[in-house]
Amino acid sequence: MDLYRTKISETIDAPVKIVRLKDGREIKKVSDKRLLRKGGADIRGYVQLFFFFITLWIGVDFYLFMNALSKGVPAVVTRPPGVEGFLPISALMSLRYFILTGIINHIHPAGFFIFVAVIFISVFMKKGFCSWICPVGFISESLYEFGGKLLGRNFTLPKWVDIPLRSLKYLLLAFFFISVSVLSAQELGSFIHSDFNKVADIKMYMFFAHISTFSIVIIGLLLILSVFYKNFWCRYACPYGALLGISSLISPLKIRRVERSCIDCGLCSQACPSGLPVDKLDSVSSAECNACYSCVEACPVKNTLNLSLRSGEKGLSQKQYAFLLLGIYFGVVGVAVLAGLWQNSIPFNEYLILFKNLGAISHAF
Ligand code: SF4
Ligand code: SF4
Question: Measured in angstroms, how far is the CA atom of residue 264 from the centroid of ligand 2?
């Protein structure tokens, strides 16, 4: 079916015409103004802000909870279950434990459900978690946009540095994956129910509350590098992103380019924060594509670049993508809440005892 005859006009035969320049070069141009794309609203930006504020809210609640714990007085707020979203290794163990035993653990159940929701998103909708939900991704993006405005451009590492460095996140993922895979259901159960796992969120809080100079230097370095290089942390070091990238390889939704109406302007590739050669591909299968829509928004020709199931289809608008993404995420969280599996089962009194002995609680293995 001819997309341009059916979707835009009965009169447009060829969406692209060849124009010869004075110097003899030939370039492609859109044959009709009606084929030019108008920019849409930045829905992704709003969704990112929404999750960023949810993260801040979780942070404030957890701070109040920790404050009460350190003073040994009843907490004015309950511990926010969402904090478990920052314990991906514990969540990976919970998922494997669930696969082996069919049991959803009650120590960090919210972490398990968030992890499952995020994997679902990447399997069906590419690595959208990274560019739509993750607060680290949002900070990373804000930093490189700031860097781009400040310096007039962002930088890219030479290929001989970029390619080996990109494997770092996969090596980290392999390390965690193999470490978890070799554990039996019994060993996983002992770890999940250990005091160490119970206080994993508290230990994470203490790490930031009493951060060492070394950690400040490393985090500061990552922040500075993120100003110069697009998504530095996500591109090179995040094992969570590596896992989502691999699971996103089977996503039926992909960025797809319609060769017939493409004018080879290269704007999509220029806009891609992952440095993918979008203008040379029919569809983007890469594990680095995070469904950020930057290429789609940059493309000047209607219905030429889309996130779609098949080439030539109209594809999902940002609004539709957001609707599906939020639907999967809050659908999974909603199931957990309705089933009474969102809050963990550790009473505040047990937290008080665990907190008093925090220094003595070490790794379970
Ligand atoms: S710009 Fe396009 S190809 Fe690049 S990461 Fe974003 S959605 Fe994927
Ligand atoms: S932005 Fe990319 S897909 Fe769109 S016309 Fe230019 S080269 Fe083709």
Answer: 5
| C-alpha separations of 256 from 15, 62, 253, 262, 306 in Å | 17, 42, 9, 11, 5
pLDDT at residue 364 greater than cutoff 70: no
Residue 253 CA, ligand 2 centroid: distance in Å: 19
Pocket of ligand 1 (CB under 6 A): 255, 271-272, 274, 276, 278, 284, 289-295
Amino acid at 21: L
Name the residue with higher pLDDT: 39 or 321. 321
Q: If you measure from the C-alpha of residue 193 to the centroid of ligand 1, how many angstroms do you get, rounded to a whole number? A: 40
Mean pLDDT of 232-242: 97
pLDDT of residue 365: 58
10 Å CB burial of residue 212 (0-12, 13-18, 19+) is exposed
- What residue type is assigned to position 171 of the chain? L
Q: Are 106 and 94 in contact (CB under 8 A)?
A: no
Distance from the alpha carbon of residue 178 to the mean position of ligand 1, in angstroms: 30
Measured from the CB, is residue 35 less than 6 Å from ligand 2?
no
**Ligand 2: which residue has its CA nearest to atom 1?**
299
Instruction: Output the CA angle 12-263-308, nearest 5 degrees.
Output: 80
- Asked whether residue 21 carries a pLDDT value surpassing 90, the answer given is no
Q: Which of the 8 DSSP states describes residue 271?
A: H
Task: Kindly give, in sequence order, each residue whose CB lies less than 8 Å from that of residue 215, ignoring residues fewer than 6 positions away.
Answer: 207
Residue % of the chain over a pLDDT of 90: 84
